[in-house]
Design goal:
By secondary structure, the chain is an all-alpha fold. The strands form three sheets. The protein has a two-stranded antiparallel ribbon with strand order 1-2. A hairpin with a 3-residue loop joins strand 5 and strand 6. Helix 6 crosses helix 8, helix 7 crosses helix 10 and helix 15 packs antiparallel against helix 16.
């Protein structure tokens, strides 16, 4: 908490453009990451204030060497003094200095296997010659000496080595600048070691961690195109087709994915590194934009999403252009730019038709219909959804109804009258019957996703549809909301939270706030409204902010 307060005092006092308190969760998280180290927190807060207007959400983008420079360079001068002392203090100190410099290759603790790859013969010229002829006992002595100087933390039992982020950044900066060939060779070795250390498709987040690290090292070795295609796309995402996007859609690791996508940017999120193919550039811009949007950083997502969409058009890659403009429409909608959302959705439909892809032609019509629904053009929206559902029945006769995100969008429109009636508006005789019909759709859609893709977002949205059907039906019949409404609401919020997609989570929180209010759980309702508002304010989600204000008023 003291570290969070220091960050706040030094200028990290916003999340996005929204002012935050000194005990905000993002500040606490940043303080924990550097173990409450006062100098680091001071540098970090000062740099965020100067470079990013005090936005703590940009913490992951901070280059500590730049932060140190802008604050007078004091931290790096102390480390340089140690380096100078070790360099002139004999053979044993030369080994210690070589070991210390190896930490410049890491942004986390180094494992025994990582260090072995760097120390292996032949020596990395100008870097590891002093470590070539030492055995395991001498290596342990070297690390113990460094630990005694409090320069490193060494866990002798498992061979793990760590150091303060400033020390790692210092040696990263000096190595990359003064010994670029050694810098690239070290990262190439780590890239190879890490990607060979796990099965081709490891399971779960723990299994993927070595591959995520391999992407970082592959990029620093200059192997951008190979790393993007062979490790990130093929092994972490498991491709981008209907059964792909494993990490994001099945594990909800969107923040981690964004961290490795950042490695392909020379300037996040505007300028990519040179040497990538045009198709890869467009794809990476859209990957970055998708993750930023999912993490609630909507304003940041807008520029790369627009740039990526335009690149697909220039390449006449119509299917990808359709997907990108559909995503852009959804983003504009969340930001409250409804007219722009409709225009982008219309482009999406046009490009989908040009592509000839049956799924894209169907799904992009639901993006347009949803935008029209939000504009208040309900009849046009109904026609659009009906057209899309006819295309769905033709495309997959065994699943004639819309499901997944298209199905959720259609259900929102179909439940609109029942929702208004449940709030105490004009009575709708068909409201309760409509809830039952939509619930049947929701159950069928949930079965499809659980038997197939297991996409976390789809699971959450299906439960949300079923929760709303049960809640509205109970209220229309004058009943206290029952077990069905409660179970589906909790399942929806849990799955949406696990999916890591902040732009959808407020929908679940608003439904739960309403349910809790009906059950006289006023503190719970207020907590859900507060969380939804915090997410929406920080992300500039004006459509959600309108819904939150209406829910509070009701």
């Amino acid at each position: 908490r003291d570290g969070a307060a220091l960050l706040h005092a030094e200028g990290a006092n916003k999340a996005g453009s929204v002012p935050i308190a000194a005990d905000d969760a993002e500040l606490l998280k940043a303080s924990r990451q550097v173990k409450g180290h006062a100098l680091t927190l001071s540098l970090l807060g000062n740099y965020l204030r100067r470079a990013h207007g005090g936005d703590i959400l940009r913490c992951g983008d901070v280059d500590f060497s730049k932060a140190n420079q802008k604050s007078g360079g004091h931290a790096f001068r102390v480390i340089a003094a140690y380096e100078h002392w070790l360099a002139g203090n004999g053979n044993e100190s030369a080994q210690e200095l070589a070991a210390l410099r190896l930490l410049g290759f890491f942004d986390r603790p180094a494992t025994k296997e990582n260090l072995f790859a760097l120390r292996a013969a032949p020596a990395i010229t100008g870097l590891t010659e002093a470590l070539q002829d030492i055995d395991d006992t001498d290596w342990c002595i070297v690390l113990s000496n460094l630990a005694d100087c409090r320069l490193v933390e060494h866990d002798a039992d498992i061979g793990r080595l760590d150091a303060h982020p400033l020390l790692r950044e210092y040696f990263a900066a000096t190595l990359s600048k003064n010994q670029p060939e050694a810098w690239q060779e070290g990262h190439r070795r780590l890239y190879q070691q890490l990607k060979d250390s796990v099965p081709y498709h490891p399971e779960g987040l723990t299994g993927l961690q070595p591959l995520y690290q391999a992407v970082v090292h592959g990029c620093r070795a200059g192997l951008y195109q190979e790393t993007c295609a062979e490790v990130y796309r093929d092994r972490i995402l498991r491709g981008t087709g209907p059964s792909g996007n494993y990490s994001a859609f099945k594990l909800g690791t969107i923040g981690t994915d964004l961290g490795v996508v950042a490695c392909f940017f020379a300037e996040p999120w505007q300028r990519l590194v040179p040497g990538l193919s045009a198709a890869t550039q467009a794809w990476l811009l859209n990957e970055a934009a998708f993750s930023l949007r999912a993490l609630g950083r909507l304003v940041e997502a807008l520029e790369p999403m627009q740039a990526g969409a335009q690149m697909w058009v220039e390449q006449e890659a119509w299917k990808n252009a359709a997907v990108s403009y559909s995503n852009l429409s959804e983003l504009q909608l969340s930001l409250g730019h409804i007219a722009l959302a409709i225009a982008d959705a219309e482009r999406s439909v046009d490009y989908a038709d040009r592509s000839g892809d049956a799924f894209e032609r169907m799904s992009k019509r639901t993006t347009l219909a949803d935008a029209r629904h939000q504009q208040g053009e309900r009849e046009a929206a109904r026609r659009g959804f009906a057209e899309a559902e006819a295309m769905q029945a033709e495309r997959q006769p065994e699943y004639p109804l819309l499901y997944s995100l298209p199905g959720f969008r259609y259900s929102e429109l179909q439940l609109a009258e029942a929702e208004r009636a449940a709030w105490g508006g004009p009575a709708a005789a068909e409201g309760s019957e409509g809830c039952a019909q939509v619930a049947q759709r929701g159950q069928a859609a949930l079965k499809i996703v659980l038997a197939g893709s297991k996409n976390l977002l789809d699971i959450g949205l299906n439960h949300l549809t079923l929760a709303r059907c049960a809640l509205y039906a109970d209220l229309l019949h004058g009943r206290t909301p029952g077990l069905d409404a409660h179970q589906h609401t909790e399942a929806a919020v849990a799955a949406l939270r696990q999916a890591g997609q902040q732009d959808y989570l407020p929908r679940g929180l608003l439904t739960r706030a309403w349910l809790r209010h009906c059950l006289n759980d006023l503190p719970g309702a207020q907590a859900d409204l507060a969380e939804a508002q915090r997410i929406a304010e920080r992300g500039g989600m004006k459509l959600h902010l309108a819904d939150i204000a209406l829910t509070r008023a009701r």
